[in-house]
Amino acid sequence: MWKKAAYRLKSRQNVKEFIPRIHSFPIPKNSPTFEKSYRQMMMRKVAFMIALVGLSQLLLAQDTSQMSTTLPYHQIPDYPADYSNVNVAARLIDGLGYRYYWATEGLRSEDLDYRPSEDSRSSGQTIAHVHGLSETILNTLLQKPNIRPVEPIDRTFEQQRQLTLENLKKASDLLRATAPEDLSNFNLIFQRGERKAEFPFWHLINGPIADAIYHAGQIVAYRRASGNPMNPMVNVFMGKTKE
Predict the structure, then answer these.
(1) Is the preceding omega at residue 149 within 30 degrees of 0, hence cis?
(2) What does pTM read for this prediction?
(3) What are the Cα distances from residue 77, in Å, to 47, 98, 151?
(4) CA distance 107 to 113
(5) Which residue has the higher pLDDT, 204 or 50?
(6) What is the pLDDT at residue 52?
(7) Measured between alpha carbons, how far is residue 190 from residues 132, 182, 186, 196, 236 in Å?
(8) Phi, psi of 75 (to 5 degrees)
(9) What distance in Å separates the CA atoms of residue 209 and residue 122, rounded to the nearest whole number?
């Protein structure tokens, strides 16, 4: 009977299904054959779990690396063709995008939770705020109203970061595609119910854009305080990062 049980142990693929069965046989636990078979089974199981964890970590590292290199503003774009008003405004957003990219690159969960005081925003909350500012910037270039109040959407840090960078890149591209004489057509619009409030493009510059630049610097300061300073190879003046 024991020989049949040992044979089933080798032939069955589902080890968990067989474990309860093995105890139904009156086999001495100190049997050499039992100990050898059980030890081999556990070694295979452990080896499989180690291989599975290693493969998962490898795939996660590849996905993270691919996302980091494909997101916009890994470096600032080339100079615009001229100093037109739309190109200057687009360059301002590009500068914000580059600073935000590296301010948020490689943040850990403890960095996102960091706050200098109990009554201040955490880094994670600040990042959510900057995402909202990026939507306001893009909506202005799409000539869409910003609806208030904003309905909260549960997003991960990675999702917020990606959406923020993509919003800024879209806004910059829209500005570059705009004729200089049409810049005044982009009004910042807020809507609450039936009420609307419109402001000229000037307010987008000293409002959401300047606010987002301010908060990018805030995130840099917070991550340094939480023990994870920004990449020292970042050069915000040149808009390039040494690899």
Answers:
(1) yes
(2) 0.72
(3) 47, 9, 33
(4) 10
(5) 204
(6) 67
(7) 13, 20, 13, 6, 32
(8) -145, 160
(9) 20
- For residue range 193-230, list pLDDT tens digits in order: 999 999 999 999 999 999 999 999 999 999 999 999 99
Q: How far is CA 195 from CA 30, 145, 148, 199, in A?
A: 83, 11, 10, 14
74 in Cβ contact with 68 (< 8 Å): yes
Both tokens of residue 37? 């078979």
Q: How far apart are CA 210 and CA 72, in angstroms?
A: 20
Which DSSP string do the residues of the chain spell out, in sequence order? -HHHHHHHHHH-S-HHHHHHHHTTS---TT-HHHHHHHHHHHHHHHHHHHHHHHHHHHHHHHHHHHHHHHSTTSSPPPPPSS--HHHHHHHHHHHHHHHHHHHHTT--HHHHH--SSTTS--HHHHHHHHHHHHHHHHHHHTT--EESSPPP----HHHHHHHHHHHHHHHHHHHHTS-GGGGGG--EEEEETTEEEEE-THHHIIIIIHHHHHHHHHHHHHHHHTT-PPPTTEETTTTEE--
Please say whether the beta carbons of 2 and 25 come within 8 A.
Answer: yes
Residue 27 has pLDDT above 60, yes or no: no
The pair of three-digit structure tokens given for residue 15, joined into one six-digit string = 């080890």
Q: What is the pLDDT of residues 79-127, one digit of tens each?
A: 999 999 999 999 999 999 999 999 999 999 999 999 999 999 999 999 9
Structure tokens at 148: 């208030």
